[in-house]
Specification:
The chain is of the alpha/beta class and 399 residues long. Helices cover 47% and strands 14% of the residues. It binds NADP nicotinamide-adenine-dinucleotide phosphate. The site of NADP nicotinamide-adenine-dinucleotide phosphate has 29 residues, from helix 1 and helix 10.
Length: 399
């Protein structure tokens, strides 16, 4: 058996690093890292080059590229083939020795490279949910045309994939995504609006990158996941439910027509989902400790509060409307989250900005790549204007 080639987009991030740990644990006879793409964390990337010896490596900018060259030469590591920017991301995503591409950049930057990987017929282990939110139709069409497999790494969708294995679609009534509820599950609306960056970064159960952690605090993460689930599994908005489950032990569940519920449970460690996506349809022993149910005093479930967390409703609205509205919503969310992390706007401004951009957006059909990129850039411009007005003290609704 020859080792299967793996390319990773976003290798220095939370999912990227966990993916490398999984690959290492599964052994060099099974998987070989052939290409890596990262942003600016040159030191971590140099460590990865030293350890995994990829043939191709890409970074975000010429500046990072120069820094990487210096770092490799100072450490006496021979340089792999190097590339940069979106061209580099696409080269990594379509590397001819890569059978599987782990899509783990954050936000819209992963969209084109992930689409190219699917067009090239690669298995895509997808963490970068924003790509499916932006253009699920294009992604799934590309996968169907090339025969590429799209396997979810997001723990909820990975759980659903496991629950749906072997079930007939006609016998599944609905799917239910679980949500931890985030750090503000018990706060009132006014308290949520005033949350600080440090508070919003305290995720109760998962340790993740900054953007998804803020998305989890607004519950937009769950909204993005509703759209992701629609494209991955073909359920309508009315057939996709959400339940808050603070322990994050049940990763998601399906409800069958006879009323049975099948849930997938496990420890809160993304390495389970990553390994599943890499080894599917096989299962391999994992080095992670299994879930100890006896140690869990209880499992709790509650309805999400859509009034305190309006981002969930915005995502359902985007999915129901369709066309380019989900791409516009995603772009506005990314801009608002970055502005919040930079302390330019308050936490309560995030849903307001997204709603304003969505209200102004004229949804068009997603016909091709350009229609999505156009919706993305015009929504970003609208979001930046709204953010600018807030930072200069102009009332959002009055503008
Ligand atoms: N973390 C989780 O547990 C988790 C769970 C489910 C789903 N997800 C999803 O997985 C994706 C990644 O999340 P994460 O938490 O791993 O994010 P993260 O820790 O912030 O990592 C993001 C990665 O993308 C790279 N990157 C950013 N901008 C780039 C650019 N312009 N060009 C090339 N690379 C770029 C970063 O590089 P540098 O760091 O080198 O700049 C880093 O390697 C997100 O879509 C998230 O929603 C994450």
């Amino acid at each position: 058996m020859s080792a299967r080639g793996i390319a990773i987009l976003g290798s220095t991030g939370s999912i990227g690093c966990n993916s490398l740990r999984v690959i290492e644990a599964l052994g060099a006879e099974r998987f070989k890292v052939v290409a890596l793409a990262a942003g600016r964390n040159v030191k971590k990337l140099a460590d990865q080059i030293e350890r995994f010896g990829p043939e191709l490596v890409s970074v975000e900018s010429e500046e990072s590229l120069a820094e990487l060259r210096r770092e490799l030469s100072a450490r006496g590591i021979s340089s792999p083939r190097l590339s940069v920017d979106e061209v580099g991301l696409v080269e990594v995503a379509t590397h001819d020795q890569a059978e599987c591409v782990i899509s783990a950049t954050v936000g819209a930057v992963g969209f084109v490279p992930t689409l190219r990987a699917l067009e090239a017929g690669k298995r895509v282990a997808l963490a970068n949910k924003e790509t499916l939110v932006m253009a699920g139709e294009l992604m799934t069409r590309a996968a169907a045309a090339s025969g590429a497999e799209l396997l979810p790494v997001d723990s909820e969708h990975n759980a659903l994939h496991q629950c749906l294995r072997g079930e007939k679609r006609s016998e599944v009534r609905r799917i239910v995504l679980t949500a931890s509820g985030g750090p503000f599950r018990k706060r009132d609306k006014q308290g949520i609006a005033k949350a600080t960056v440090a508070e919003a970064m305290q995720h109760p159960t998962w340790n993740m990158g900054a953007k998804i952690t803020i998305d989890s605090a607004t519950l937009m993460n769950k909204g993005l996941e509703v759209i992701e689930a629609h494209w991955l599994f073909g359920f309508s908005p009315d057939e996709i439910g959400i339940v808050v489950h603070p322990e994050s032990v049940v990763h998601s569940m399906i409800e069958l027509v006879d009323g049975s519920i099948i849930a997938q449970m496990g420890v809160t460690d993304m390495r389970h989902a990553i390994q599943y996506a890499l080894t599917y349809p096989e299962r391999h022993p994992s080095s992670l400790p299994p879930l100890d149910l006896a140690k869990l005093a209880s499992l709790n479930f509650e309805q999400p509060d859509l009034e305190r967390f309006p981002c969930v409703g915005l995502a359902y609205r985007a999915l129901r409307t369709g066309g380019t509205l989900p791409a516009a919503m995603n772009a506005a969310n990314e801009e608002a989250v970055h502005a919040f992390i930079d302390e330019r706007i308050g936490f309560g401004d995030i849903p307001r900005i997204i709603a304003e951009v969505m209200d102004r957006h004229q949804p068009a059909p997603v016909t091709n790549l350009e229609s999505v990129l156009h919706a993305d850039s015009s929504a970003r411009a609208a979001a930046r204007l709204a953010i600018g007005r807030l930072t200069t003290g102009t009332n959002l609704s009055a503008a």
